[in-house]
Amino acid sequence: MPDQLYWESVSTLLPMTYRKKLIEVALPLEAINMESAREKSIRHGHPSTLHLWWSRKPTATARAVLWASLVDDPSSWPEKFPTLEAQTQERQRLFDILGRIVVDTDKKGKQKQVVRGLVSWDDIKDPQVIQDAQREIARCLAWGRGEKPPTKPEEVREYIAQYAPPAYDPFAGGGSIPLEAQRLGLEAHASDLNPVAVLINKGLIEIPPRFANLPPVNGDDRKRTGLESWRGAQGLAADVRYYGSWMREVAVNGIGDLYPPVTLENGDKATVIAWLWVRTVTCPNPACGCQMPLTSKFWLSTKKGNEAWVEYAINGETSPPEIDFVVKTGKGKPREGTVDRKGAVCLACDTSVKLDYVRSEGRQKRMGAKLMAIVAEGKNGRIYLPPTKQQENIAFSAKPTWQPKTELPKEALGFRVQNYGMTKHADLFTSRQLVALTTFSDLVGEAKDKAFQDALAVGLSDDDIPLNKGGNGARAYSEAIAVYLAFGVSRLANRSSSICFWDTKGENVQQVFARQAIPMNWDFTEGNPFSSSSGNFLGQLDYLTKVLENTLILIKSYVFQHNAPVANSSDTTTKIISTDPPYYDNIGYADLSDFFYVWLRQSLGSIYPDICSTLLVPKSQELIAAPHRFGGEKNKARDFFEAGLMQAFKRMNSIADANYPLTVYYAFKQAETDAKDNVASTGWETMLEGLMQANFSIGGTWPMRTELIGNLKKNVSALASSIVLVCRPRGENAAKTTKRKFLSELQNELPQALKTLQEGNIAPVDLAQASIGPGMAIYSKYSEVLENDGSKLTVRSALQLINQLLDEYLTDQEGEFDSDTRWALTWFQQYQFDPGLYGEAETLSKARNTSIEGLETAGILTAKAGKVRLLTRDELPEKLTAEKDTRLPHWKLTQGLIQRLLQKGETGAAELLSGLRQQKAEVEIARDLAYRLYNLCDRKGWSSEAIAYNSLVVSWPEITRLASEFAAKPSQGELFN
């Protein structure tokens, strides 16, 4: 496989003073990435659904990276695998354990590719798969110790526990890495400065093993104890579900009147799923004064067969006039919304209002809300109903007894609401939402007390040792239940805020954090926590109890709050380190996680007083480059980040077990261009500089598909992959080299690396950051790379050289394109799809050995009235047949495939492609052209156009697979002439 050959070549850059691990030589990358991408869409029972965390890495990726870091590559044992053939055969056996792609056939005979092995989320539920993986880890440990490897599952687990080093992630975040280390049989250590991250990790890896295989203590489930095995954390899950249901019952009795049902036309009562609101401000027109509804849309449902929308009527009999809403269903469509980025319009008088006025009204606390529609549970789906004054008045009658009056950051990444007068965390919720969340939060403590009494009654120890001190008796167990109940309340907050919105396609309540931000919502959704539909409390609990039910791991692990650059008392033990550090200024974790922390602290402050000791999440020590924390000075923010990251890497170097590589995940788009058009990235520069200063060398790099491109990300040029850097300490006697020699090595090594990346179908948006790895592997093996004047070649300069070679590589690929396409590329670069002068086009055509007439005949341009213009994708004919000759330019093929992909999805594009199976080489060039066009559009800042080319490459494996199936059908004819 090409990717194996490439990664072997990179890994030989470092001197051999250790046994190479599999990750330093080769990986079944396609299988790992395929499963990692799929995993992002798995919900029920997946660890990520315990509690939200931003940019959490797929467990498949973490599992693969850790296992391949623990298992020796066959080339490390020449005495056992003396020939290249033997090593290749053994490596393939390891690949089959880790991840392999197979074709499955369902009951209807439909075939699809699936991943099997350790990386598969489905397969790890099979104990045999985990045992096979652990056996390889134990075998490598035993060989290294000169002992006979254990074979029985229990012996294997004991051997790993005794001889494998602990695994440690000092930036634990959402907990994927320590969780997967634990799954592989290692003692896992996790730390993070952020208290929300610490609590999540405790819930994932520290609490479940402490109460493993314990039956539930509640009376209802105790009756089934003889019928259930209660493996792993299943007993704990049953208790969380039981006491959560008890909390709901108590809450309904206390505040249920705030959530009344609605009366249908036939007189029946229906439970409300959600109340749909719009924000309002007073119209500034003195002759009007209406409370202007501010909404981005009037659609309620775009679901086929259940279309619904809102129309309005002006009630002029009142002064000022009022806007009344009515619900319409069936055929038709609503008007556009009343507000956008430019401003708003008054429905009553058509006055246009600038957004500055709306912001000013918000800051003066004069922004209100008006009920627009009600969504209720129907027998055959959602029912959309008009608002009533009674429903609106009940909502306004709610009076919270407590609310989080902590301040929102005045300036922070991803925050927009402060401009509209929302300055405290309480402002992100309606009064009724505050009442509900406070009620549930208070009930966590009552449920804990109830669980404590039940635990004592069934015989758990009354040792009074709390959970945070390592207890495992009745008190600790009841506190453990409270942790998960608090997670349920925290999850509910994410669906119970005035930042939530109604998904008109899926017909459900969408969360606050649809992305890594708290944006301004004009029309918002207030879900019913007592319904049985979207956004209810028991539904949130169901997500996390399913996680616990799937938690069968028994390995004791440790989680602590700690700032990664600072030494810790546990540093005396060497560890295998794998980590996902912060990405410069991409995500403001601390500011965002305050949204959850204010509720978690309310419920868990007495259980974890040290972790919850601060009023808000610690900010000043958070390792991100946030200029607003340094008076707006970007250089100070950068220096803080670089110094902290370097210190963190130095600490890792000092505690890393020398037998294992350090693996670092990083994803940061290069988007900075200097005056000479050189491209680099401060984010990458500071991270790599930290590694260099900490005396690490990069021995291997892997582009891992860790980000789900879906929902909001479909419409942005978002990174799909993280680059996993495989590092070892640089030798003390590492040589220096010159810039000239470094550039020569780059020119020799990088093109083959880039070719392999393209063959592995890396997304164009990820290609620039993926090329950093092999380039910096060369740079980092030297103690210094020297400029002609003897000064040090900086990391930034090295990144610019790598990007220059990437541009040259993609430009050189233009030689593969036909002359029509080379003309189109040059013309597109200057005019995109806009018209240009005929004379310029004709001159260029002669230089490209084609003609305007020929280009027009080929169907890629139109020429009239002295102007020439490339045809847009919408103007291309469906079958793309050439009229007068047989040439089909690569340009037309690529644009035609993209158009079919956008219109009819991967199946439509595959159907189109199948007619060209006899010209496979030509088909592959279409993908190469998409890479070139993405690179060009990205540099030009043509984001929307760049997305189209990125989409084609991302979808390429599935398109070509489906095209093969179409071509195999006897009835399949050619779609191209």
List keywords for this structure.
seven-stranded mixed beta sheet, five-stranded antiparallel beta sheet, alpha+beta, disordered C terminus
Secondary-structure map:
Blueprint (H helix, E strand, L loop, with lengths): L1 H10 L17 H11 L19 H12 L13 H15 L1 E6 L5 E6 L10 H19 L7 H11 L3 E3 L6 H8 L4 E5 L2 H16 L8 H4 L11 H22 L6 E2 L5 E2 L1 E11 L8 E4 L4 E3 L6 E8 L6 E8 L13 E3 L6 E3 H9 L4 E11 L2 E5 L3 H8 L34 H27 L16 H21 L6 E3 L4 E3 L12 E5 L9 H13 L8 E4 L14 E4 L9 H16 L29 H22 L6 E5 L5 E2 L5 E2 L1 H12 L2 E9 L17 E8 L6 E3 H21 L4 H17 L3 E3 L8 H18 L6 H13 L4 E2 H10 L4 H7 L2 E4 L2 E4 L19 H24 L6 H21 L2 H26 L9
Parallel strand pairs: 3-4, 3-20, 4-19, 20-21, 26-27
Antiparallel strand pairs: 1-2, 5-6, 7-8, 7-14, 7-18, 9-10, 10-11, 12-13, 14-15, 16-17, 21-25, 22-23, 24-25, 28-30, 29-30
Helix pairs in contact: 1-19, 2-3, 3-7, 5-6, 10-13, 10-14, 10-15, 13-14, 13-16, 14-15, 14-16, 17-18, 19-20, 19-21, 20-21, 22-23, 25-26, 25-27, 26-27
